[in-house]
Amino acid sequence: MSDDLSQFSMFELFADEAKMHAATLNEGLLAIEARPDDLGQVEALMRAAHSIKGAARIVGLDEAVQLAHAMEDCFVAVQKREEKLTSARVDQLLQGVDCFERLAGMTESDAKAWLDTNADALQTLATSLRTVVRENEKVPQGGRGLPDDENAKRGDGEATPVTSGTDGEGEETAEATPETVAAELAERQVEPSVDEPERDIDPAGSAETPEPPATRSAVAAPEVAPDRAAAEDEGDRRTVPVNARNLNRIMELAGESIVESRRMESVATALTRLRTAQRRVTAELELLSQAERDERIDATDFQQLKELCGQCEGLASQHALQLDQTAWRVQELATALHHEAVASRMRPFAEGTVAFPRMIRDLARRLNKQVTFQVVGGDVAVDRDILHKLEAPLNHLLRNCIDHGIEMPEARRASGKAETGQVVLEARHRAGMLTIEIRDDGRGVDLDALKAKVVEKRLADQAMVRSMHAAELMEFLFLPGFSTSQQVNEISGRGVGLDVVRCMVQEVSGTVRVDSRPGEGTRFTLHLPVSLSVIRAAIVEIGGEAYAFPLARLVRVLRVPVEDLQPVQGRQQFEVDGVSVGLVSGAEILGATAAPESEEVVNVVVLGEEQQWCGLVVDRFIGEQDVVVRPLDTRLGKVPHISAAAVLEGGEPLLIVDVEDLFQSVLQMLGEGRLRGMASAVEGDTLSTRLQVLVVDDSITVREVQRHLLSSHGYDVQVAVDGQDGWKALGSSQFDLLITDVDMPRMTGIELIRLVRAEPRFAELPIIIVSYKEREEDRMLGLEVGANAYLTKGSFHDDSLLTTVADLIGKPT
Amino acid sequence: MKLGPPGDSHRAGAEHQQQSILKLLDRELSPGQLDENTARVGQPMGTEPRKVARVLVCRLHGETLALPATDIDRVAHVAIVHRIPHRTNRVVRGIVNMGGELQLCGSLADLLGMTARADEASDDQRQRMVVLGRGRNRWSFLVDEVFGVAVYRLDHVRRPPMTVENARDCFVEAVISTTDRTATLLKTDRILSGFRAALP
Hints:
The complex is a heterodimer.
Chain A: H1 5-34, H2 42-58, H3 62-79, H4 87-104, H5 108-117, H6 119-130, H7 149-154, H8 178-187, H9 226-234, H10 244-293, H11 299-343, E1 346-348, H12 356-366, E2 371-376, E3 381-383, H13 384-405, H14 409-414, E4 421-430, E5 433-440, H15 447-456, H16 462-467, H17 470-474, H18 498-507, E6 511-517, E7 521-529, E8 534-542, E9 545-550, E10 556-561, E11 566-568, E12 571-576, E13 579-585, H19 586-589, E14 601-609, E15 612-618, E16 620-628, E17 642-647, E18 653-657, H20 659-672, E19 692-696, H21 700-712, E20 716-720, H22 723-732, E21 737-740, H23 749-758, E22 767-771, H24 776-785, E23 789-792, H25 798-809
Parallel strand pairs in A: 2-4, 9-18, 13-15, 19-20, 19-21, 21-22, 22-23
Antiparallel strand pairs in A: 1-3, 4-5, 5-7, 6-7, 8-9, 8-16, 10-14, 11-12, 12-13, 14-15, 17-18
Helix pairs in contact in A: 1-2, 1-4, 2-3, 3-4, 3-6, 4-6, 10-11, 12-13, 13-18, 22-23
Chain B: H1 8-25, H2 33-41, E1 52-60, E2 63-68, E3 72-77, E4 81-82, E5 92-98, E6 101-106, H3 108-112, E7 128-134, E8 137-143, E9 145-153, E10 157-158, H4 162-165, E11 172-177, E12 182-186, H5 188-198
Parallel strand pairs in B: 2-12, 6-8
Antiparallel strand pairs in B: 1-2, 1-9, 3-7, 4-5, 5-6, 7-8, 10-11, 11-12
């Protein structure tokens, strides 16, 4: 960034302007290419090029000025009908547009350096654009040597020759050998989801699909706007687009809220007057009562009192009505304001599809296919975060459509289809969810090839595969590494695409499925929540505090009578839909103290996946409501089992449970023996009255010796391999005693004890240090930080440990 | 000078007054006066040390505490604190809703190692939440009472006792005197970093 403050702001202005006009040029050029005889757009394109030229001149980017000028000249020629825009010419113009977009994403110094490096290539391109190409003439070559988008954005600095595909005008097309393509791809640390979106299947098989005339340039990566990536790093400082009408409405409602709040002041004043009048009434009553005792009641006193009472009643009636109306208006305003604020997060779906037409166009040309692309439902409102996260999966799926779905023109003609394939991207709201469809009219999925691949990869045997229906078979496509493609090309066939798509969709709590008809086409359907910022959740109480469980993540919410519980290996469970659901204590997992509302009924939140369900016991159900998701303070790090926070209607904070994380923790803790299913519906994890001891030592020998010794004397022992592991164990189970070493990796015994003593619920937990360190200062330190006893391994006797343990927690009964 | 109603004679008088004022302002300076004035006006701003500072004075477990007023984000009524699993401990209490923002809440008393006195009467009506810090580095905590913002003289401060000053966990800047009380001035940075360090 330049230190010259005046240039700093001017270059940014240029960048903004260049981006804006580049988008116009992109869109306009694609439109003209589709309808070459419709020259209505050319004027707008000329203005866009002219504006970029002017802005580039102000910031002294001479090569950019020349290029923009040349583009302007080209548009003039087209407008005068001296030249007809061909695809080859559109390629060159788009190259020019790419240059401007690239410059707009750089710093000023980088932009100038880039222009210097590519001056010759830019000059050639400009010269070519200025040369009017008559009908049947060849478009002069230009732009060779300019780095393509992918190389530039990865910053590898090497210019890779860009060639445009043949369009019948005899241009040469560089063909890559498999070795060069593979070598080039191997050099890059590609992330398939971004750089190499790949389809898992080549439905028709390699023999039918001619090798595309690959260029040495890589597949175009989805363009993530640089300011968007940087904005995510900036957290709260990022700027986001908000609909102007929405913002105006928020301002209006905020202003109205202030007005109503001032009205509340007048109501408060009126109530104060009422209170004053009421006091006078009370005082008069006192006087009357005194007068009655003195037997000197006067009729005037009664009259005064009656009048006062009348005034009070009048005031009360009048202002009660006013208060009621004001309260109603305030509530309406607050609701409307909240609604508008939430709506400000929504963006039109079309905003997230801006780059797709160009990407599809370029890809189709590269593969010598003819494709039309349509976006339906561009106005559908989508949460801005969902829109951003969808960019990569949609890019994947669209590229797969072009590469594997749409056939070559000759093949389409032979099968009676139009030579030009159709790809449609549609968004709509349905049943409270956002549905996005990507569909093509290509060759569809070859189920036989799919079955063969499933068997080849030993995912299922022949008999099982034969019995599966299409929907079940399609699920294999989403497995990591699954591909039926016979060959790897630079675009697809590696089998690492659809699993990533599914992961990304699931990240936003969505689902994706595919269906297909051979010969007719394929359709991918994504179901997503309309907004990430508002979720529907079941609100429960655990340990006296509110927690929210997203409904989309739950299997069931039940109140189970205690008599329906049955033990299996001592652990309580009940049956739902033929599935045994074991109980675990929500309070225990979240480190709270259970406070069940009833001993007759157990409140259970059932969660899990497929046929593995567990029942999380909670204190009580509060209700179900929409909650606005708020991120937790970043200083907390990733809090286990918690994904975010919210606020209840009454203003109390609420934590939103990360159901997947919690379920995985339950599985892990069960496997490690740190959690056992509830033995009793009412109590927590109390399988028995045996005293629970946690032994923390990084030496397996020491751990096992202590475990064996204590177990043989009736204690229940769990072990941990170091301080950090021990801390986790303490958080998930209850112990009566902690025995710890001092020197351990990741977290020492001293650090562990400090953590323990800082925790209120462990304030009274007895702690014994067993260490090789025998110096007095080590002993003093151990006792200072909070250990109850310090034993040295050097003078370790079985009896001394047992004696100390018994002194602290008693002997097992 | 007496100003009379408009009129020729009075107009002449006003002109005379104006001339006199101009003469006063345009008079020659005495020797050295120009240099003296120049030196005074030419002094850089802010070189004179501030003599007073403002603090928020509050009470916690019977002790009067003070925090730099510029470090206070807000003072609010007591709100419900929700504990955070695997994070809440003696010092880190949880999250609290402060005017629509969910903020981290800590226990200043436990951070400072203060304990409630047995004879200390608790008055919930006076308790307040204080939010200390700026931006992303804010913490809220409960105090028993907020007295308000006070001013103290910078030349009227005492060092804390050596039992505190030399302690490993010293959070005290000085002992200060406001107009009506003596207070323990705390170090904001130390408190904020103390809360942060208490996070598991």
